[in-house]
Design brief:
The chain is an all-alpha fold and 262 residues long. 72% of the residues lie in helices and 0% in strands. The protein binds zinc ion (2 copies).
Length: 262
């Protein structure tokens, strides 16, 4: 199944790979190459695509089961839920019962701490009194306990998937059939391009050169379209029929931020 190694299953497969490196590495390598080949055949940044698919699976899993498991509960309580982007998604399509359980658990855990903060604030000592430093220390300790800690668990999941596939893509590019597919693909969004550059070492420089070259080609094409857009904005050519240069900005934004709906 495509994407079966992503996310939760990805962690499982990685641990299996570690337990029997030689055998497992060969199998994973072949399956990942097949998966990367399929991703490269689709429109848009392949890393964004697999991250979206992976998020959908982790989303289903989370609301079906793990929203109530101890390790996940601790994470969303510590963080006060999720990041702004994923909170909007939870609000929009998350199931009502689970949403209620999650936010009720957060409030339940945080209210006593907030009460402590209020008590400390009410016990404030006058400025310059000997107790002022003690008061400030207590207040800082309290505010540290009430502020969000950790990270959004959906962001973390997406980030792990991206790092996994970015590394595999770089490795897979040393295979001629993947190189061919990559050259014909949409290339990467800038976000994942920067991420792939962070894999730079002497061994994979040729693969990164391929990626950078394609990126350069895609950006140059966009720049040519912009040139055309500005040319047609000139009164001398403004009667010419308008074309795809009118929507170049949307493709550029997509290139910068990934496969987002605009
Ligand atoms: Zn991307
Ligand atoms: Zn998030």
């Amino acid at each position: 199944m495509r994407g079966a190694l992503a996310n939760f299953n990805c962690a499982e497969t990685l641990s299996q790979a570690c337990s029997n490196p030689r055998k497992r590495n060969a199998e994973v390598d072949a399956s990942i190459r097949t998966e990367i080949a399929q991703l490269l055949g689709q429109e848009g940044c392949p890393i964004c695509t697999i991250c979206d698919e992976s998020l959908q699976r982790s989303w289903l899993w989370f609301f079906r089961e793990s929203y109530a498991s101890g390790s996940q509960v601790g994470k969303y309580i510590d963080y006060w839920g999720f990041c702004k982007h994923h909170t909007k998604l939870v609000a929009k399509i998350g199931p009502t019962w689970q949403k209620s359980v999650i936010y009720s658990a957060i409030i339940d855990a945080k209210l006593p701490i907030l009460k402590d903060v209020v008590n400390v604030l009410k016990s404030s000592s006058p400025a310059f009194s000997p107790l002022e430093k003690l008061f400030i220390r207590r207040l800082r300790r309290m505010s540290g306990r009430i502020r969000p800690k950790g990270e959004c668990l959906f962001c973390k999941s997406v980030d792990e998937t991206a790092r996994f596939y970015v590394e595999r893509l770089v490795n897979a590019l040393s295979y001629p059939e993947i190189e061919r597919l990559f050259k014909r693909s949409s290339g990467l969004c800038m976000h994942h391009f920067f991420q792939i550059l962070s894999n730079l070492d002497a061994n994979n420089a040729p693969q990164l050169a391929l990626v950078a070259e394609l990126q350069m080609e895609k950006l140059s094409n966009l720049q040519q379209e912009f040139d055309e857009f500005f040319r047609k904005a000139d009164y001398r050519y403004s009667s010419e029929p308008k074309g795809q240069e009118q929507t170049t900005w949307t493709r550029t934004v997509q290139r910068f931020i990934g496969n987002a709906d605009l």
